[in-house]
Write a structure and sequence with these properties.
The chain contains five helices and no strands. The protein is mostly helical and 156 residues long. The protein has one domain. The chain starts with a helix and ends with a helix. The mean pLDDT is 96.
Length: 156
């Protein structure tokens, strides 16, 4: 697999993985009746304040913009991690599918939770076991789907 094809395969795989992550998250919300997390919007708000960008609009409009930007950043993050996996595969990183899936899921989880913790959006030290499972299971689904799609798109 050449690097450009690896990147393209990874981006597509990351989008598929993000869909799996969202599906597992929404299934959990439906099954347990839990509310959506505000961490994507809170992260956007903190990032915007840190770089001096004003999110315009009245209270309702601004909240909707934060929600939209938070969701878009999730799609970008999922595609970027998938792109990185595709590039890694193109450069010879070829672990077993389960290993690749777990590593990808852990990488995506760390890559999204670390900035939220650094910005003070969440304190990972206070998370309960249920909180960790609610985050880990969707990220594992993301990783497994992303790794499977990257492997499936590799014709080499």
């Amino acid at each position: 697999m050449n690097k450009w094809r690896g990147l393209a395969a990874g981006l597509a795989a990351g989008a598929a993985g993000t869909t799996a992550l969202n599906a597992v998250t929404y299934l959990d919300m439906a099954a347990r009746g839990r509310p959506t997390s505000s961490t994507p919007e809170d992260t956007v708000e903190k990032l915007a304040a840190k770089v001096g960008v004003v999110i315009p609009g009245d209270e309702g409009t601004r909240k909707n913009r934060l929600t939209g930007i938070g969701a878009l950043l999730g799609l970008v993050a999922g595609s970027a991690v998938g792109g990185a996996l595709g590039l890694a595969r193109a450069f010879g990183f070829r672990p077993k599918p389960l290993v690749a899936g777990v590593l990808t899921g852990v990488g995506a989880m760390a890559g999204t939770n670390a900035p939220m913790a650094a910005l003070g959006v969440t304190d990972l030290r206070t998370w309960s076991a249920t909180d960790w499972l609610s985050d880990a299971v969707p990220h594992l689904a993301y990783g497994l789907v992303t790794a499977a799609v990257v492997q499936g798109l590799d014709r080499d």
